[in-house]
């Protein structure tokens, strides 16, 4: 089974601003299921969200094969932008390790009426 990245779509909100093509969006309730243990230990992970040139990160989760972050992230962006959500394993002495993630058009996420979005990654 491949790990899944989840985030709550009910919190991906569309708010109109002065410019019709720009929206304020909120992404929250990010979780990952099915990460593997290494050397008998669950990973210490964090998520990085990127929209356009803006990047935001979660805190580092306690060791878990199913980390969850119940925090809100806000971005001002155009409908044509891409949400890039990446999961990393935190290392202390070497470069953090990319574990996987998801990329989706914000316009498609806003059009989706489901409660959450799930994407698998290898």
TrEMBL record:
Pfam families: C2
Gene3D superfamilies recorded: C2 domain
Source species, domain of life: Eukaryota
InterPro entries: C2_dom (IPR000008), C2_domain_sf (IPR035892)
Residues of the C2 domain: 1-119
Matches recorded under SUPFAM superfamilies: C2 domain (Calcium/lipid-binding domain, CaLB) (SSF49562)
Protein name per the record: C2 domain-containing protein
Organism listed in the record: Piloderma croceum (strain F 1598)
Classification of source organism: Eukaryota, Fungi, Dikarya, Basidiomycota, Agaricomycotina
